[in-house]
């Protein structure tokens, strides 16, 4: 998880893994024209600016890495959030790295200004990220004004807004880094850092797999609907005497069709319910075996939230019942449209 490409000022040395998550410390700001030129390039899915500062720590000794980021475009930090307050990220809120001691809901003081710890990141294995504090550009801008009032020029003289020191880029599926390098080859003030080519391919392949994992169940539902249609065509043909008698007793064509459709939907619902229960048992066994093995080795293993699992279960029940009902409706409607005497005569009565 991280950026595919990183745009830095020329001549800045970098730690690749850390930089692709949170830029590079103490890098000078990029020319605003670079951001405008990159924005117009095709093949880019996301562009997220960041700016990195080292400021005096709130304890009064050492320094703290403070990183300004844009929450609306960020894609490298927020996926790592382990816990956060039950409200949106706002002004004077900060994210803290996984190894920082501050608990959720506590405050951090910089230059006499209190910032609320809104969220805490997972341990990424990247030291600079795990020790850093992350705030929005507007929050860091306020800190810069506060620092200047104390005679501290840590943040420089320019405004934080529109003045990033790094641009993190995510490529669109199928796009390559070559066109970005070519487009910026005429800008000598910047350097382009690429992530692992294998990592980019894996991330883009996962998107294809995700699209396939959605398409295949939909195709399966369609095939199941066709199968139910064929099966119910045979069922109603065998039961035409019974159905003809119901029509003779005054049941309408619509009522008969809906009755048979609801019968199929109920059977499908019971079958889908059994499948959901079986899946829940299998998932529980998986968590207590393979999941426990991963956790015991320090590898994070998380399931979707309970609400997401319940939603998926109900969606499965609903789609299964709906497809079965629609599949049975067509042959039922066709049979119910025949004359009653034809149905009864065909049965030998």
Automatic annotation (TrEMBL):
It is a multi-pass membrane protein. Coiled coil: none annotated. Residues 215-338 form the ABC3 transporter permease C-terminal domain. The chain crosses the membrane at residues 214-236, 243-262, 268-290, 311-333. The keyword Plastid does not apply. Its main location: membrane. The keyword Transferase does not apply. It is found in: Cell membrane. GO terms for cellular component: plasma membrane. Belongs to the ABC-4 integral membrane protein family. This is ABC3 transporter permease C-terminal domain-containing protein.
């Amino acid at each position: 998880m991280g950026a595919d490409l990183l745009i830095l000022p020329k001549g800045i040395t970098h730690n690749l893994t850390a930089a692709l998550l949170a830029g590079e410390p103490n890098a000078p700001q990029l020319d605003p024209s670079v951001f405008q030129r990159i924005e117009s390039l095709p093949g880019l899915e996301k562009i997220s600016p960041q700016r990195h500062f080292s400021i005096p720590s709130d304890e009064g000794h050492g320094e703290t890495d403070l990183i300004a980021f844009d929450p609306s475009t960020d894609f490298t930090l927020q996926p790592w959030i382990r816990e956060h307050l039950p409200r949106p990220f706002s002004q004077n809120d900060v994210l803290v790295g996984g190894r920082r001691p501050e608990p959720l809901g506590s405050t951090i003081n910089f230059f006499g200004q209190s910032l609320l710890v809104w969220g805490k990141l997972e341990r990424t294995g990247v030291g600079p990220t795990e020790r850093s504090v992350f705030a929005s550009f507007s929050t860091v801008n306020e800190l810069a004004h506060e620092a200047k009032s104390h005679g501290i020029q840590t943040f420089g003289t320019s405004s934080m807004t529109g003045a990033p020191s790094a641009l993190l880029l995510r490529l669109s599926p199928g796009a390559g880094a070559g066109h970005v390098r070519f487009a910026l080859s005429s800008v000598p003030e910047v350097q382009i850092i690429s992530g692992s080519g294998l990592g980019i391919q894996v991330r883009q392949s996962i998107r294809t797999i995700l699209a396939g994992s959605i398409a295949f169940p939909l195709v399966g539902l369609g095939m199941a609907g066709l199968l139910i249609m064929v099966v119910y065509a045979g069922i109603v043909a065998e039961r035409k005497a019974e159905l003809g008698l119901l029509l003779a007793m005054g049941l309408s064509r619509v009522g008969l069709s809906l009755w048979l459709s609801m019968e199929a939907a109920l059977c499908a619902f019971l079958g889908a319910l059994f499948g959901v229960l079986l899946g829940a048992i299998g998932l529980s066994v998986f968590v207590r075996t393979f999941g426990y093995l991963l956790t015991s080795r320090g590898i994070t293993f998380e399931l979707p939230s309970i609400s997401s699992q319940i939603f998926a279960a109900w969606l499965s029940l609903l789609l299964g019942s709906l497809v079965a009902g629609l599949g049975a409706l067509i042959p039922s409607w066709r049979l119910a449209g025949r004359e009653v005497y034809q149905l009864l005569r065909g049965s030998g009565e």
